[in-house]
Amino acid sequence: TVEFLDKDVALVQASDEIFSVDIRARNGKKQYFDIEIQGRGHGAFFDRAVLYAGIVAAEAHSEALRDYDKAKKNLGKTARYKMPHIICIWICNFPKKKSKESYREEWALYRKSDIGNKKAIPVSDVIKYIFIKLPRVEACKKTIHPEEFAWYDLIANSERHREIPDTASEFIRDAYERLRVRRTPKEILERQVRDMIPSAMIDDLIDEAVNEERHNQAKKMLDYGFSTKKIAI
């Protein structure tokens, strides 16, 4: 069984900011999931992935502590540190830098001394990251389970399908029906996409544009023989 949790999560800092994840859930095994669909990359993408994982993990641990308080008579004090498993899935519609050519990449916590050891196992499996690169899915289709591929196809190409694929499972067919892509005018879909762009993403775009302009200005100065030490960038 899967239980969907509140997507609004408290960020404990001076501003007490509240931000919203895309999907937060847990299953009967008490595993917690943070699922994000990312349309584009930005300079702090990896920092963001780690931040989201940490906050979702803190929320999950808070819930685990409540269970501990109910049963602490039968548990040792160290049990209060035990963490539920957190699985963070980032479905990205852009190629990631510094990554292998596979459509799927996983992160875990390893020792530095294990770098290069193909048999190395994670020091901890409390937080697991899974990155899916949608632009690489089609090229890796032969290595992907058909039902898994069907979900990626739904996410990446649902607006292109005039009919529900014959190979779709019951759940995927239901997802297509809910999207009602075939019955939705193009201008409504385009407006929905615009409305889904959060202000934080707009801020990221502005920051990248400013940094790129500063870089270009510095390069022009170098081309004219000026030293970068005299340029404020």
Description:
This protein has six helices and eight strands; from the N terminus they run βββββαβββααααα. The N and C termini lie far apart (53 Å). By secondary structure, the chain is α/β, with parallel strands linked by helices. The chain has helices spanning 45-71, 134-137, 146-157, 170-179, 186-195, 199-223, and strands at 2-4, 8-10, 18-20, 23-27, 32-38, 86-92, 104-109, 124-133. Strands 1-4-5-6-8-7 form a six-stranded mixed sheet.
Please give a quick description of this structure:
This protein is α/β, with parallel strands linked by helices and 233 residues long.
Average pLDDT across residues? 76
Spell the H/E element sequence. Answer: EEEEEHEEEHHHHH
Strand line-up in the sheet with most strands: 1-4-5-6-8-7
Q: Roughly how many Å is the radius of gyration?
A: 22 Å
Instruction: Report the portion of residues in β strands.
Output: 15-25%
Low-confidence stretches: 228-233
How many E strands? 8
Indicate the overall shape. Answer: globular
Please count the helical segments.
6
